[in-house]
Amino acid sequence: MRKLAFALLFATALSSTGLLSPAFAQNAPAPAAGTPAAAGQQAQAYNHKVPQLHRAEIDALLADPGKVLFVDLRRPDEISSIGTFPVYLNVQVNDVAKELALIPKDRAIVTVSNHAGRAGIAGDVLKDKGFNVVGAVGSQLYEEEGGKIVKVAIPPPPQPAAQPAAPAAQAQVYNHKVPKLTRAEVDALDPNKVLFVDVRRPDEISTLGTFPVYLNVQVADVEKNLAFIPKERAIVTVANRTGRSATVGDQLKDKGFNVLGAIGSQDYEEQGTRIVKIAAPPPPRQAAAQGGAPATAQAAADPAKN
What we know:
Blueprint: H1 2-17, H2 24-27, H3 36-42, H4 55-62, E1 68-72, H5 76-82, E2 88-90, E3 108-113, H6 117-128, E4 133-138, H7 139-144, H8 167-170, H9 183-187, E5 194-198, H10 202-208, E6 214-216, E7 234-239, H11 243-254, E8 259-264, H12 265-270, H13 284-289, H14 295-300
Parallel strand pairs: 1-2, 1-3, 3-4, 5-6, 5-7, 7-8
Antiparallel strand pairs: 2-6
Helix pairs in contact: 5-10
């Protein structure tokens, strides 16, 4: 009887505070923005066919670079500011299904985005199309776990020359082992057999554009990252005006790669073909003010969460 009386007394006390009210959970104040509880509510559960990988698994794959291909789904401006892996294939998440032919199928694939959201989506698409996708990773999560991410610094703008160089001195003679390709030659290439290797910084690619799918490696890093570059396809190296691309083309050719030639993306565009340029979207508030996507759509596409 004493236990029953105590239970009734305790229930009455809770009811008087409102803690037993059905509406209590609904009427409870939301956690303040920026608190851990708020962050937990905003976190999106990973729900994809391909597993989400963590630092130990990624580091094991990096230790055997000849068997893995990192496919980064982010815009070049994101990669420039946030960083990624030393060598990566870039394709936009919405273009994966239509650009399958340009994606090498001979290696185990790890898809990459900021927090594995887009990476999980693209990983599922590639897996359904028969690619060997070992998993998806968020580069920011990998870095938070102690992994090392590569960020390519943007150099300061060059100082103006005291006197402009003479036109003859500005002209550079193309003198390389690999041929300089034209628009017609590039357009005739079979997408199932070619790999575009762009050797420019991500910020350059963001500004000037490139091909829909490309492998990115920095000129100074080619030698130490040869194992990351697939040898199964014919290679076309890409830069702005074929200077760096031809240099890397010669280097890869000397290492046994099948290099068809080098091209400048600006030369290619000037010859009448459109280059893919992926602009950074405006901030969410600015987009809403301009009559852009609703807030829910913007939140779903927020790069910080995917």
